[in-house]
Amino acid sequence: MRIAPKLLALQLGLALALVPFASASAAPPITFEGVIPTDPISPCFGTVAGCTPPLVVDGFRFTALAIIGSADHFHLVSAPWAAPGTAPALQRYPSNGTQYIGLDTPGISMELVSGGVFSLLGFDAAEGYLIDSDGSGPSPFLPTSFAEKIRVTGYFVGGGTVSTVFDFDGINDGPGGVTDFQTFALSGFLGLTKVDFVGLDGGGSISGAGSGQFFSIDNINATPAAVPLLGPIGISALVAVLMLAGWAALRHLHRTENATAG
Ligand SMILES: [Ca+2]
Ligand SMILES: [Ca+2]
Ligand SMILES: [Ca+2]
Hints:
Elements: H1 3-18, E1 44-46, E2 55-57, E3 60-64, E4 73-77, E5 91-92, E6 100-102, E7 107-112, E8 118-127, E9 130-132, E10 141-143, E11 149-156, E12 161-167, E13 182-185, E14 192-200, E15 215-224, H2 231-261
The site of one calcium ion (CA) has 7 residues, from loops.
């Protein structure tokens, strides 16, 4: 009867010790629906004239990467042009019926404003815009600054990176019609301080006639502090130490009881 409460305390202590290392529940995806549009493709975020500093949404900071030339800003797209012949420049943007970010940069990075650690589980993405070559409609469209692949690179809090490349399907007919965005799932993107999204050409390179390959992203499934800071090995070590401590405590208790009984 004397051992049970102590055993219970030991078990509670072990459980409480592990609480800080349990995975956080998944956060809602970052949808960009709370960003206030100022026109169908504004505001823009970057260092060029007319754009504001990096976008902050849901605790994350999104920054355009100046990989090539002046393509160092991205846009909030709230109402992609639907009709061919609509200004500006007969551009046609991908659509998922909601707001998203992209265009005018071949690279976008994301990190927590707090500087904390997060995990990236997946995201939606589409190619950049197309230009209607003769204003006649969906065909022919000339691919312009059109990413054929997207590379995602995560930077681990302890150093090192994880990276993967996804292929775009080339389907990008604007509002309505077919589905322009694809959903990409990630694994192993855990315990990160930063993630880079970079548009690539069909050969997997950054090129794109001086401006790189544009792309669009939405519904980013990121979870702050979703991975234990100790990592699996650290947790195993902690459990082993606590079990040893518990065994030692029980052994001491057993000896004390024997001595009392004797
Ligand atoms: Ca959205
Ligand atoms: Ca479409
Ligand atoms: Ca597509």
